[in-house]
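One such given next:
>
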Amino acid sequence: MTLAIPLTGDAVSPQAHKLLSAVRELVELSKGTVTVEQAAAEPVEPPLAAGPEVRLLTGSRQALLDGAALPLTRLEFDLLLYLAERPRRVFSRAQLLAAVWGYERAGERTVDVHVRRLRLKLGASVPAITTVYGVGYRLADDAHIAVLPHD
């Protein structure tokens, strides 16, 4: 199957980059390949990250917000890491309890409390977690979170 998406103009919009990333992920999940053909002479680079960036250093389990240490609890770090490693996917509270907490018997509002605390620590300038009403939570589309395996 061939899908042609005409992109005009000198710069490709951030929305077009998101669309291309989503299509690439879907194709790769089904063992397909993606070929990007561009008529422009200059290569198009993805847009620069706007706003603060969060770095999750998995080796030392540290979180940095624009280079400054961000004091997260173990569960807050694990929750943010779990969502950051699985962008564009929505998780129910029960799924998050099982994956991050390791059990399903606690009240599902436990997830809500941890998400609220995490949002407070990140501040309003870092939209990291999106609520999908009636379903659960997912990583925000415009979240700038880098997961780094080493310090």
Notes: The chain is about 35% helix and 15% strand. Residues 38-49 have pLDDT under 50 and may be disordered. Helices lie at 14-29, 74-84, 93-101, 109-122. The longest strand covers residues 54-57.
